[in-house]
Amino acid sequence: MSEAKAKLNNYRQSPRKVRLVADAIRGKSVEEAITALSFIPKRSALPLQNLLASAMANAKDQSLPIDGLVVREIKVDAASTLYRRRPRSKGMSNPIRKRMSHISVTLANDPRPKKNKKTKKAVDEKSSVVNKES
């Protein structure tokens, strides 16, 4: 299977915010994904653009044809969390969690084949219902 991978570790933004942008480019061609990222007004769009460029460079190093590459898989996982404290009244404090993300991208020439969700039994039952009505 011909694929190219790239990874961005310890990106200092929460995975929840990065996943919003990652979901927008999943399954698209690389050209469409880069164009879409240039119009998304989120902070994580630029690092994802750079990550796609890195994955394309890896594909070029592996002698893969670049014109048909598709974003097959993009994962955003939680990295380590920095804990800070916010002072409160009466000598207390509340925790502040500064979350980080690991982002990994896989580019491939052919998208995964889509599975047909209807089984043969369901199709046969549907056709038998139509035949009974006739």
Automatic annotation (TrEMBL):
Residues 121-134 have a biased composition (Basic and acidic residues). Pfam families: Ribosomal_L22 (PF00237). Residues 85-134 are annotated as: Disordered. Keywords: Ribonucleoprotein, Ribosomal protein, RNA-binding, rRNA-binding. GO terms for molecular function: rRNA binding; structural constituent of ribosome. CDD domains: Ribosomal_L22. GO terms for biological process: translation. GO terms for cellular component: cytosolic large ribosomal subunit. InterPro entries: Ribosomal_uL22, Ribosomal_uL22_bac/chlpt-type, Ribosomal_uL22_bac/org-type, Ribosomal_uL22_sf. Gene3D superfamilies: Ribosomal protein L22/L17. The globular domain of the protein is located near the polypeptide exit tunnel on the outside of the subunit, while an extended beta-hairpin is found that lines the wall of the exit tunnel in the center of the 70S ribosome. This protein binds specifically to 23S rRNA; its binding is stimulated by other ribosomal proteins, e.g., L4, L17, and L20. It is important during the early stages of 50S assembly. It makes multiple contacts with different domains of the 23S rRNA in the assembled 50S subunit and ribosome. Part of the 50S ribosomal subunit. Belongs to the universal ribosomal protein uL22 family. PANTHER family: CHLOROPLAST 50S RIBOSOMAL PROTEIN L22-RELATED (PTHR13501), LARGE RIBOSOMAL SUBUNIT PROTEIN UL22M (PTHR13501:SF8). This is Large ribosomal subunit protein uL22.
